[in-house]
Design brief:
alpha/beta, Rossmann fold, Isoleucyl-tRNA Synthetase, domain 2, four-stranded antiparallel sheet, 26 helices, about 15% strand
């Protein structure tokens, strides 16, 4: 094949991805090999590729490609999540653009629109992952609303209900007024916001007295059904058994006493609104208070809001403040910072709301999941710093609110057969439900039309918490070959912000439904941030277009750019120049390949320099491979990439190829060429997980390959021994070469002009390495000496002193003049620094860092003077 002069990702990437797909390299089925399994954190079906997805899926692809090359049966299961709230919001918005309201549609009609949306946009993100190079088994693509997946979720619900772990209860829940659904506690984000604390006077019934109550939510006074004080608060002892009148609504409510009140906070007097605050609800239950709900589902005021009915809650707040002020009930207003709960999905301010919901008891489920991470080490969190967060969540876990007031999702399999809320059965199908209802009601004449299925759907996380089991059919058929082979999975790569949402729940589900862990290691990535440390988001406009990056830098360049500074659990400070660095690396490797391919081979003896260089590089490769394996073992993927990067860029391209390169227009011996190709191929194997497209392109150009010889399935390099003494000797030689090259550059000595090198060999270095020094520095001879030759510059490597004679090579008189000028300047500089350091006032009063800096300047100047004096003496 003709080798293009430039590496072109736009040509290469689609070509090799198609090749991999056509030959089924991503496909997996159970066999005798050891499985390596990853399930993708299913992105929202409405989603498009963003930087977080790019990082997460690149890491997964690195792990799966390496496992595949290690000979393991690599299975990476892709899929998407139906994302109830997000998808329903998208569909509602689209319908609104068409002038259609959700309320005007039946459930079935709305679901038709939702499926249409899913069919149109649902596969977008998966197609984008292919452009990144993700080697998923696409034949296994799952969707949480697929028939088998949905049936698995329903089966789990029925099973847990029958075990008494799922119940229906009237509880105070988190209500999202925008999505018009309840949320679990974990889906509420608390953020500090600047607001106001309003002090409002409540008249005491039958007296001229008033009590002052401070609140951040004055609109809720319309739902007040009591005022509460601490029983030991002497300020309010005379209010016992009295009543107060609530401003605006003029409702007469009792004064109650409860130790819940904090006497030294605010005025020590609380308004109690049982319908709109969880603590107030508990107090209301204890004191048998009336419950007055003032909000509609969209957080506008209902008929209990009186003349504010239909008004938005925040607009009502402003209006009520005006009314209170005008009527003399507003005592004062002061600025106040408090934590406000917002919806993780819509960003809307949460309203506490009483409603009938379905809950899952979690204490029993949490115990084995807690032990798996923190006691027996069956599941490892990487990095381990997240164990404390995990412990806190799991030890303080609350029952999980699993019902949502939506239409898009798995509908709760509860069927009501009578007017009462408690007259229901739970079953996987209508037929089973009818049989149960007839038995439970004692009415054999019940028909399916007499049953009404619960309107709510299940929380999206309730489908994804069984993901590692359900994708292999392990819920409906627990003993099938696939789940028996692939489960538990190997690694999970995800973001720490869903450690509880998803990871902890999957661990709970794994132990409950299969009696074992769902995965062995959880690799927690950091968040992708910009250089100002802001989280990347569309709203901030600081997130680059993922596909545009791939188009500009190539998928390999972007992958390297993301991983160069992506340590587990630590945030990635992303800058686009990292992708440029990745692209530059791709070009470096490509140009190295073109250089090697351009060499003409001949049946000639192998030069000693080439032989030595290859012996060194083999040892260097094995030492680096040992380091890389250690990084993979500890999930330091960024470090594994950096070790690979340095090995190929520095050791292979910059040193080995220079060592073996034949003279201009001269051929290379066949033995050296064959060994260089072999080492190049070994490099490509290490590179493949990080840069799959580039490495496969070069691999296929190197030799004709059968389908089973593609790089994607080539064997991973085997670890072998290395010689540390040899590596140390080469590093010493490399320092000598670098020093000579530096002198050549500084003194502008053309490489074509041969020089001599003398050495005072105190180290007893082996002269066999001289052939490398001579070739890479164009040194005509290297001779031992016991004294400095005249007219030479010197340098030291360890205890060896090297001399490079300049007589006849450069103008020695001019060099002497330059050195004397620099020596005069440096001595003057040292004197000025020493003068400053001899000033006690400066030393005693200046910051410690400033003094240390001056001391370093002095020592550096002294060292430079010694070098210059020695060079001057040699030249004279």
């Amino acid at each position: 094949m003709e080798i293009p002069s430039k590496y072109d990702p736009q040509r290469v990437e689609p070509q090799w991805y198609s090749y991999w797909m056509e030959h089924g390299y991503f496909y997996s089925q159970p066999d005798e090999r050891e499985p390596y399994t990853i399930v993708i954190p299913p992105p929202n079906v409405t989603g498009v590729l963003h930087m977080g997805h790019m990082l997460n899926n690149t890491l997964q692809d690195v792990l799966i490609r390496r496992a595949r090359m290690q000979g393991r049966n690599a299975c990476w299961v892709p899929g998407t999540d139906h994302a109830s709230i997000a998808t329903e919001a998208k569909v509602v918005a689209k319908l609104k653009e068409q002038g259609v309201s959700k309320d005007s549609l039946s459930r079935e009609e709305f679901l038709e629109h939702a499926w249409e949306w899913t069919r149109e946009y649902g596969g977008v993100i998966l197609e984008q992952l292919k452009k990144l190079g993700c080697s998923c088994d696409w034949k296994r693509t799952a969707f949480t609303m697929d028939p088998q997946m949905e049936a698995s979720v329903i089966a789990v619900f029925v099973d847990l209900y029958q075990k008494g772990l799922i119940y229906r209860g009237y509880r105070m829940v988190n209500w999202d007024p925008q999505a018009k659904t309840t949320l679990s506690d974990e889906e509420v984000n608390y953020e500090e916001r600047q607001g106001f604390l309003y002090h409002i006077a409540y008249p005491v019934e039958g007296t001229d007295q008033k009590v002052i109550i401070a609140t951040t939510r004055p609109e809720t006074l319309l739902g007040d059904t009591a005022v509460c004080v601490h029983p030991e608060d002497e300020r309010y002892s005379d209010l016992k058994d009295k009543k107060v009148r609530v401003p605006v609504c003029d409702r007469v409510v009792p004064v109650i006493q409860d130790t819940y009140v904090t006497m030294d906070f605010g005025t020590g007097c609380l308004k109690i609104t049982p319908a709109h605050d969880e603590n107030d609800y508990q107090i209301g239950q204890q004191h048998d208070l009336e419950i007055v709900d003032i909000f509609n589902p969209d957080a506008t005021l209902n008929s209990n809001g009186l003349h504010y009915e239909g008004m938005d809650r925040f607009e009502a707040r402003k209006a009520i403040i005006k009314e209170l002020d005008a009527s003399g009930f507003l005592v004062k207003t002061e600025q106040y910072t408090n934590k406000v709960g917002t919806s993780e999905r819509t960003g809307s301010v949460i309203e506490p709301r009483l409603s009938d919901q379905w809950f899952l008891k979690t204490k029993e489920l949490a115990a084995p999941a807690l032990a798996a991470v923190l006691e027996n080490g069956e599941v490892n969190l990487v990095p381990s710093k997240f164990e404390n967060t995990y412990r806190h969540w799991m030890e303080n876990i609350r029952d999980w609110n699993i019902s949502r007031q939506l239409w898009w999702g798995q509908r709760i399999p509860a069927y009501y057969y009578g007017p009462g809320k408690d007259q229901f059965v739970v079953a996987a199908t209508v037929e089973e439900a009818l049989e149960l209802a007839r038995s439970q009601s004692g009415n054999p004449k019940l028909k399916s039309v007499d049953l009404h299925q619960d309107e709510d759907v299940l929380d999206t996380w309730f489908s994804s918490w069984i993901w590692p089991i359900s994708v292999f059919g392990g819920i409906l058929d627990p003993e099938n070959d696939e789940v028996s082979y692939y489960y538990p999975t190997s690694d999970l790569v995800t973001a720490p912000d869903i450690l509880f949402f998803w990871v902890a729940r999957m661990i709970m589900a794994g132990y409950h439904f299969r009696g074992e862990k769902p995965f062995s290691t959880v690799y927690l990535t950091g968040l992708v941030r910009d250089k100002q440390r802001r989280k990347m988001s569309k709203s901030l406009g600081n997130s680059p277009d993922a596909l545009e990056l791939i188009s500009q830098y190539g998928a390999d360049g972007v992958r390297v750019g993301l991983l160069l500074s992506a340590p587990a659990g630590n945030d990635l400070l992303f800058e686009e120049n990292l992708c440029q660095q990745g692209k530059n690396f791709a070009n470096k490797v490509w140009n190295a390949f073109r250089l090697v391919q351009g060499w003409e081979q001949a049946e000639i003896p192998q030069p000693e320099a080439a032989r030595l260089g290859i012996v060194w590089y083999r040892s260097r490769f094995m030492k680096t491979l040992e380091e890389i394996e250690g990084h993979y073992e500890k999930y330091r993927i960024s470090d594994a990439l950096m070790a690979t990067y340095k090995l190929i860029w520095d050791d292979f391209c910059s040193w080995l190829l220079e060592i073996v390169k034949p003279a201009y227009q001269a051929p290379i011996d066949k033995a050296t060429y064959a060994e260089v190709i072999e080492l190049f191929e070994a490099n490509l194997k290490l590179l493949h997980p990080f840069m799959p497209f580039l490495s496969e392109e070069i691999w296929q150009h190197m030799a004709p390959r059968a389908a089973d010889q593609a790089l994607i399935v080539a064997p991973w390099p085997e670890q072998d021994s290395f010689d540390p003494d040899l590596l140390e000797a080469f590093d010493f030689t490399r320092e000598v070469i670098s020093a000579v090259r530096t002198i050549r550059k500084e003194k502008q000595i053309p490489f074509r002009d041969a020089v001599s090198l003398f050495v005072l060999n105190e180290e007893g270095t082996d002269p066999k390495w001289d052939v490398l020094i001579q070739k890479l520095t164009n040194t005509a001879e290297i001779r031992d000496t016991d004294q400095a030759p005249q007219g030479a510059l010197s340098f030291r490597v360890k205890s060896n002193e090297y001399y490079l004679p300049l007589t006849g090579v450069v103008d020695v008189a001019s060099e002497i003049e330059k050195i004397e000028e620099e020596l005069t300047y440096t001595r003057g500089f040292l004197t000025s620094v020493q003068k400053k350091l001899s000033n006690r006032r400066f030393v005693d009063n200046a910051p410690e860092k400033v003094v240390a800096l001056e001391q370093k300047k002095a020592s550096d100047a002294q060292a430079r003077i010694e070098t210059l004096e020695k060079s001057l003496a040699n030249l004279k």
